[in-house]
Design brief:
globular, alpha/beta, TIM Barrel, 17% strand
Length: 211
């Protein structure tokens, strides 16, 4: 089965459950030739984990197709923020005051507004980035009130050894409490669960690019 057919099959499944959900096609580690059929079909949202890889892969193409939306879904270090601000339209991994402050300054310098998701460490895992759930409201207020960042919603990556439903439900409740309308949750293995929990952005890579 082709990569494009994989994408179309997932698109159909998504539309059955929630037609308003955005599919972010995760292209990390993929050659551009494999991605191009999905672009040619008309898909506009693509996700990358690393700033340098994204810049090398997409910079030239973005000069001829400015409609593409690039989403940074991997963890962002402050020293990579300058480059990230230039190429990405969405950052799903906002997870510290230092990073938020750096990005706010870069938005002014570059005269560019970026859309953000605040990453929540929903499973309280030491090896993962994200804001502790108990600090989520204070961090959200800092980003929106003090820094004037455009926060769309929350994002999480649930623990890999537990069912995702519990964590997606917890994130949805927190998102609702903050009166946010968007949620970035769900990947190739659990996107159907995320859709039922109200995810607005699912991040799908391996399910599309497997042959």
């Amino acid at each position: 089965m082709s990569i494009l057919q994989n994408y179309l099959n997932i698109k159909k499944e998504v539309e059955i459950i929630n037609s308003k959900t955005n599919i972010v096609v995760v292209t990390k580690g993929q050659d551009f030739e494999k991605i191009k059929p999905i672009i040619d079909y008309g898909h506009l949202d693509f996700g990358e984990n690393r700033v340098q890889e994204a810049s090398l892969k997409w910079s030239e193409y973005l000069k001829i197709n400015s409609n593409i939306n690039l989403h940074l879904i991997g963890r962002l270090q402050s020293n990579k923020a300058k480059e990230a601000c230039k190429i990405f339209n969405f950052i799903h991994s906002l997870d510290s005051e230092n990073l938020a402050s750096t990005l706010a300054k870069l938005e002014i310098i570059n005269n560019k507004k970026i859309n953000y998701f605040i990453q929540i460490n929903i499973g309280a895992e030491k090896q993962k980035g994200g804001i502790d759930i108990t600090n989520a409201e204070d961090f959200f207020k800092y980003c929106v009130i003090d820094l004037k960042l455009n926060i769309l919603g929350l994002m999480c990556i649930p623990p890999s050894d537990s069912p995702s439903l519990e964590y997606f439900t917890k994130l949805k409740n927190l998102n609702d409490n903050l009166k946010l309308k968007n949620l970035s949750m769900g990947m190739s293995n659990d996107f159907k669960v995320a859709l039922k929990c109200g995810s607005s952005h699912i991040r799908i890579g391996s399910a599309i690019f497997r042959l």
